[in-house]
Amino acid sequence: MSMNDLRRLDLNLLVTLDVLLAERNVTRAAQRLHFSQPSVSVHLAKLRDIFGDPLLLPGPRGMQPTARAEELRTPLRQALEALSQAVQPGKPFDPATADNTWRVAAADYGETAVLLPALAGLRKAAPGTRLAVVQLEPARIAKLAEQGDIDLALHTAEGAPQHLHRQTLFSEQYVLAGRSGHPHLKRAPTLAQFCKLEHVIVSTAGGAFYGVTDDALAQRGLQRKVVLSVPHFLFVRAALLSTDLVAMLPSRLVRGMPGLRVVAPPVDVRGYDMVMVWHERSHRDPAHQWLRSHIAASV
């Protein structure tokens, strides 16, 4: 069949052929299709012209399919069944029987503050599903979401792509943290004491010794002593536990962590909103909606 012939086909013709091959009788086919008998005959004539084959011939016990019609029977039935399933309303999502594999882009902060609180409930509610946490690449979030390579991305509101759907999960604030026995954190330090402490900073871009805390200090004509710059929060927590370094960290990262003392900083550092973002392609998908709801309810 040529492309031009394919364009001449419509769904009604294919449905008629499927029923004719099952019934092998124009009258019974018309009854099943709720068509008039002449309409079915017209469809059959069009099909014969398109396929260049009689398809169904008169026989002693009804119409008999030609060899070409026999070739068409199974693939046509399969195609119509697949099309029927495709256009049916989406089935409600049942997490208990689901087998989805979800991909979420997150940095280590998002893993700790967002995904970890949601994980136990996710495993209990949807034990047949899998979760892949992939490296957060801020510049590629939009493209990866559009291509379906990630389902969600966890990011600060300020840096997240504006054209994606988003939901704010929480507002985060910075606290000052050091080891429990730190000699200068028995009480909240003064601003002068804060600047003299040795600080570790998280630089996700790598190697920077300046951040939002330094911006806030600079507005007062002050600066602190940053002696260590690392790309991951996990290393910061380990460094604090084993040295007298201190760090300005998001509160959820150190909340309830044993071995650390957390105090209010003597300088007001602007916090941020944490959001999850996703593409329009999955916005109405019941499984995706359930995952988003579960994460939002867990943090």
Automatic annotation (TrEMBL):
Residues 9-66 form the HTH lysR-type domain. The keyword Kinase does not apply. Keywords: DNA-binding, Transcription, Transcription regulation. Pfam families: HTH_1, LysR_substrate. PROSITE patterns: HTH_LYSR. The keyword Transcription applies. Belongs to the LysR transcriptional regulatory family. This is LysR family transcriptional regulator. It comes from Pseudoduganella rivuli.
